[in-house]
Amino acid sequence: MKISTLMAALAVSLTGTVASAAQYNANHFFAERHSMVRGPYVEFAKNVAEDTNGEVTFKVFSAGSLLPPASSLGGLRDGIAQVSYHAGTYTPAELPVANLIGNMAFYNTDPLVMAFASTEFGLTHPAALAEWKKNGIVFGGGYSTSEYHMQCNTKVETLADVQGKKLRMPGGAWSRFAEHIGALPVSIPSSEMYSGLDVGVLDCAVAAADALDSFSLKDVVTSMNTLAVGNYYAGFEWAYNADFWKSISPENRKVLFDQMAYYLAEHRIEFDADVEKAVSAAKEKGMVVYEPDQALQDALAEFVKKDEATLIATAEERGVENPAAILADFKQTIDRWDALLDGIDRQNVDALAELARTEIYDKLDPATYGTD
């Protein structure tokens, strides 16, 4: 028996069968206190249970306690979890389309725009939908981290300062950017950023600045550079096991749509608030914040123009048909959301959630979406 099958059997034995228990597993590899878990998973699960009259009840497993990061896609497909978060760069071969658009992280670094745009694209674009189906999952909604910054244990202000430095990168375009500016990309999971900085394996961790608190980086970081090194949205915040999705009623799918629309907005507000608090606390501990010099800004702009050809070539190598057209479609979706969100109150979760419902989720048919 395969390990994945054994684990699935164990998960069912712990929660009961789908038919008899109506309790399902929700998986996230961030800690429960993280903004992408405490609202979009913990509160989400409570609201879903209430709004479905207990017909859909999720038990939330956080901090990788059910599935480690690299296994979340396979574990979701195999039914170990019925809903899960997944960081797409862990599975480039399985999710080449998701990684193609996820590596466009420098085109627009507005996290709210990218969270909404990646959600609409994942729910509606034929290439994305075909990829989810091939992997045995049903896409529910996207996300975006706040902007990534270099958080370092040494002074990093200028392009010259960065050259030769060891930068933790999430892979893909970020690693290529490190090489472009003469730095050394190091691919390690976020859970190892602290130890890497502490022992000198890393000079900088490139991540959203809430990591100063959520991963305790403020204890080992002495400087932060405000250069916007993209933001991360590859994969999904919610996707569902295909058999589970088909087993629940259209009415309960509609509940999930409504809750995802709300927490798509809520988590963006909370994520940015966490960043602000974390940076403030780190500055109180002595962290110095540097603006990038012009040479570093120019190097980033040069990279953005240059890297699109690499994105397209990489996607073609992974079997994606016409990746240039897919990128063009995604850019249109990004630009649409840039316009839709212009002037909206970004602290009003209800207004943002209503926009997500009317412009994305209400256009889906809960009776048919994800069921073919």
The CATH homologous superfamily of the domain at 3-144 and 232-276 corresponds to Bacterial extracellular solute-binding protein, family 7
Strand content: 5-15%
Task: Give the termini separation.
Answer: 29 Å
- State the helicity in percent bands: 40-55%
- The structural class is alpha/beta
Shape: globular
Radius of gyration: 20 Å
One letter per element, helices H and strands E, the order comes to: HHEHEHEHHHEEHEHEHEHEEHHEHHH
Number of strands: 11
Strand order of the largest sheet: 7-6-8-5-9-11
Number of helices: 16
The top-level CATH class of the domain at 3-144 and 232-276 is Alpha Beta
What's the architecture of the domain at 3-144 and 232-276, going by CATH?
A: 3-Layer(aba) Sandwich
Q: Quick check: average pLDDT?
A: 94
Please explain how this structure is put together.
The structure is a single chain. The protein has 372 residues and is of the alpha/beta class. It has a domain at 3-144 and 232-276: D-Maltodextrin-Binding Protein, domain 2 (3-Layer(aba) Sandwich). The protein has 16 helices and eleven strands. The strands form two sheets. It has a six-stranded mixed sheet with strand order 7-6-8-5-9-11, with helices on both faces. A five-stranded mixed sheet has the order 2-1-3-10-4, sandwiched between helices. Helix 5 (96-102) runs antiparallel to helix 14 (294-317) and helix 13 packs across helix 16. The protein is globular.
Helix-strand blueprint:
Elements: H1 3-15, H2 18-21, E1 23-27, H3 35-51, E2 57-61, H4 72-77, E3 83-87, H5 96-102, H6 111-124, H7 126-134, E4 137-141, E5 148-152, H8 159-162, E6 166-168, H9 172-180, E7 184-186, H10 193-199, E8 204-208, H11 211-214, E9 223-225, E10 235-241, H12 242-247, H13 250-284, E11 288-290, H14 294-317, H15 323-340, H16 349-359
Parallel strand pairs: 1-2, 1-3, 6-7, 6-8, 9-11
Antiparallel strand pairs: 3-10, 4-10, 5-8, 5-9
InterPro entries: DctP_fam, TRAP_DctP_sf
Keywords: Signal
Organism: Roseibium algicola
